[in-house]
Design brief:
single chain, 234 residues, alpha/beta, 27% strand
Length: 234
């Protein structure tokens, strides 16, 4: 057990999917895993372990934002020896050709600052996905009807941003969507020699103002979960 994860040794699989919302973790585990068992409920951050096509999988909530994800990812890596970490979450679309419910597979994750920023000081580290996971996720997505985009995203450290000038530059430079966790996940994976990827569903759009209700955000993002699972075990 760790400070934030109550699972006993052996209860966390080497592959972990990480939604921000603990109730999305519950829904995904009950929907996609066989014999899913609750292994963590410390601070209400639910985690479940079961199997998918015979492969052990844990789905562990990470909370909102890079500081929260950093806690769980660090403990999963250092205390439970997790090898593959895939974020499954929602994001805001930033390009006109990116629509609501589209899937974004994040090749890179830019950010202004993260919990790891102090380590690098003046150096601008470029957080990227693991190539084997990225390639497998794109292949899995190509077998589906879901409209999918592959490219760079932005990991923000604030939800209520007030930088329209920054949004304009990100759109200008092809950033597909904005979320709050992937850049730190990619950085931690690089530091510890692990595999990481973010597969995201567009739940709202910064340009059009469209947005899905909270229930849809929690329970109707099945394509990204299946893409993540297929990528992990290809």
């Amino acid at each position: 057990m760790t400070v934030h994860i109550g699972a006993a040794p052996g209860e966390i699989a080497s592959t972990v999917l990480m939604p921000g919302d603990p109730y999305r973790a519950k829904w995904a585990a009950e929907t996609f895993l066989k014999d899913a068992k609750l292994v963590n409920e410390v601070r209400g951050m639910l985690g479940f372990t079961g199997t998918w096509n015979g492969n052990p999988v844990t789905i562990q909530g990470s909370g909102m934002g890079m500081p929260s994800l950093s806690i769980y990812a660090n403990e999963l890596i250092s205390e439970y020896d997790v090898q593959t970490l895939i974020r499954i979450g929602s994001c805001g679309g930033m390009q006109a050709h990116v629509g609501i419910r589209d899937v974004i597979i994040a090749m890179t994750a830019s950010t202004i600052t993260s919990p790891s920023s102090a380590i690098f000081r003046e150096f601008n580290f470029a957080p990227t996905a693991d190539w084997s996971l990225l390639r497998a996720a794109v292949a899995a997505a190509e077998t589906r009807d879901t409209k999918t985009h592959v490219g760079g995203i932005y990991s923000s450290d604030v939800f209520y941003a007030e930088r329209p000038d920054l949004d304009e530059q990100m759109v200008r430079h092809g950033i597909l969507g904005v979320e709050m966790e992937a850049a730190e996940l990619y950085t931690l994976a690089a530091r510890h020699g692990r595999r990481a990827l973010a597969v995201l569903t567009v739940s709202d759009h910064l340009q059009t103002g469209e947005a899905l209700p909270s229930e849809d955000r929690e329970k109707t993002f099945g394509d990204m979960v299946e893409i993540a699972l297929e990528a992990a075990f290809t």
